[in-house]
Write a structure and sequence with these properties.
Layout: H1 2-6, H2 13-45, H3 50-97, H4 102-107, H5 110-152, H6 154-201
Helix pairs in contact: 2-3, 2-5, 3-5, 5-6
Main location: membrane
Organism: Candidatus Gemmiger avistercoris
Transmembrane segments: 21-41, 53-74, 134-153, 159-178
């Protein structure tokens, strides 16, 4: 199933690869900025050296600009890749429906096919975009931040490590509860589309 879905990326593979790379660059720049801030305070303000303040200030500005540009490019590439993925997937599904036998036509309702080509594909598009952006950004930010915390102070880092375990347990609990709700909602999409189809079909032609 995953291999079939990934095959629909096709001509957008370059965008799908560039999005995580620029996301990683954005995360790296954001993690380095606090160290530059610390250098401004320690080597510039406390030492009374304005030259260091200006030097590290320009460095911080450069890091912020690189992070901004990387974030914009990552968003652009991820949006393009996910939109192209959804377009190819809808086209492949429509072509597959055209080859249905009579038994398949009786098995799949019109409402169900509409749901597959609209709501389901949109959900896959959003999920693919989140994988390219958030699923890459969040773990990288976590790993880089924890590495920097251990580099600064090991004892204080243990507090963050314990907090991460608690947050992970809470997220897993929420995901397990919400998955059941999503299953119930998705089952009702077909009924909703069928009801709309019946109402539209029953409208008198003036």
């Amino acid at each position: 199933m995953i291999r079939t879905l990934l095959a629909q990326v096709r001509q957008y593979r370059k965008d799908a690869l560039l999005a995580p790379l620029f996301t990683a660059l954005e995360v790296l720049m954001e993690v380095l900025i606090p160290f530059v801030t610390a250098a401004i305070i320690d080597q510039g303000i406390q030492a009374g050296n304005m030259g260091q303040v200006y030097r590290y200030g320009l460095l911080m500005l450069a890091l912020a600009l690189v992070s901004l540009c990387a974030g914009v490019l990552a968003g652009r590439f991820s949006a393009r890749a996910s939109a192209g993925f959804a377009c190819n997937l809808r086209d492949a599904m429509y072509c597959n429906v055209q080859t249905f036998s009579f038994s398949n036509i009786d098995k799949f309702s019109t409402a169900g096919l509409v749901t597959r080509m609209t709501t389901d594909v949109t959900n896959l598009q959003n999920a693919f975009q989140m994988i390219l952006r958030i699923a890459v950004r969040a773990p990288l930010m976590l790993v880089c931040s924890m590495f920097m915390c251990f580099f600064i102070n090991v004892r204080l880092s243990l507090i963050f490590l314990a907090a991460i375990v608690v947050l992970a347990a809470a997220l897993i609990f929420i995901m397990l509860r919400t998955t059941r709700i999503f299953d119930q909602v998705f089952r009702k999409y077909d009924d909703l589309n069928a009801s709309v189809q019946e109402n539209v079909s029953a409208i008198r032609v003036v």
